[in-house]
Amino acid sequence: MKNPIVRIALALSLFLLAAGNKAEAGTKSTDLVYVGSNSVQGSLGSARNSGDFNQFISINNFSGSGWAYMEMGARDASGVSRYCYSSNANFIARHGASAMPRGSM
Predict the structure, then answer these.
(1) Is 59 part of any domain?
(2) Does any domain span residue 52?
(3) Strand, coil or helix: 86
């Protein structure tokens, strides 16, 4: 994979999939949002409840008749952001559903 956007999307998808598989009822992660050069990670709850108003993790899937679009973004406490998107239907079919956490937007 030479495209860094695809690498970031795949890394975030795999992170969210792994985080969902490890979840236990009542367990809450408190990992702050981390934005690296080729990956992002963190807890959705911690990002939402952070006191700095900078942190966020966003994952959105949109689709209609004959089209699909997926976008992901994250920003850490210091304001470093990374975004990626895809309109490749095969990529979204393979990775889109696994990137959507329960109760997401």
Answers:
(1) yes
(2) yes
(3) strand
How far is the C-alpha of 37 from the C-alpha of 18, rounded, in Å?
A: 20
Whole-angstrom distance, CA of residue 69 vs CA of residue 57: 17
CA atoms within 13 A on the CB side of 44: 18
Q: DSSP 3-state helix, strand, coil percentages of the chain (rounded to 5)?
A: 35, 25, 40
Domain count within the chain: 1
Give 15-53 pLDDT, tens digit per residue.
665 555 555 556 667 788 889 888 888 888 888 888 888
The whole domain housing 55 covers 4-99
The token duo for 91 is 């990529």
The two three-digit tokens of residue 102, written as one number: 């329960």
> Alpha-carbon dihedral of residues 82, 60, 48, 57, nearest 10 degrees?
-20
Checking if the pLDDT of 78 tops 90, the result is yes
Report the distance separating Cα 52 and Cα 99, nearest Å.
25
How would you label 4-26 residue by residue, b for 16+ Cβ within 10 Å and e otherwise?
A: eeeebbbbbbebbeebeeeeeee
